[in-house]
Amino acid sequence: MIKKFSIQTIVGIVSGVFIGFVLSLIFSLLNGAVSYSPSTPKFVAQFNGSLSATVFSALLWALMGIVFAVGSLIFTITDWSIAKMTIVHLAVTYFGFLPLAILAGWFPLNFVELGGFTIIFIVVYIAIYITSMIVARKEAESLNQKLRER
Q: Distance between CA 53 and CA 45 in Å, rounded?
């Protein structure tokens, strides 16, 4: 289990930083920025310069990646039902991701913004969950078909 945890942590760091950097580039371009910004102007203004803001952002992206990558290990607990795994995974990822998103300056900490973030998180979670279940079902059907052919 320690080996799986270590591997997932490394995968989370790499994927979190990569996804965070790519998304921040996309948002910089979409906002018509002349120079790269790792997050919102208000977030960057908290630092001595864009380099320290970028380093802090990379740390947050790495932690976000770890939350999701290590959180996926919940689905390896074989004596839990899929419903229990899903509910626990949703809670772990939401409550692990929420403070990091707040620290990243993605939204101000107030009830309306928190509600909007929560709705978006749940909608995205459900979309990914449904897609994953469809893929898993197709894989299971394919494996069952191959077994029947033997």
A: 8
The token duo for 132 is 């994953």
Q: What is the DSSP letter of 76?
A: G
In tens digits, the chain (150 residues) has pLDDT values of 789 999 999 999 999 999 999 999 999 899 888 888 898 888 999 999 889 999 999 999 999 999 999 999 999 999 999 999 999 999 999 999 999 999 998 888 899 999 999 999 999 999 999 999 999 999 999 999 888 887
pTM of the complete model: 0.87
Burial grade of 67 (CB within 10 A; 0-12, 13-18, 19 or more): buried
Other CB atoms within 10 Å distance of the CB of residue 86: 16
In angstroms, the CA 65 to CA 120 distance is 18
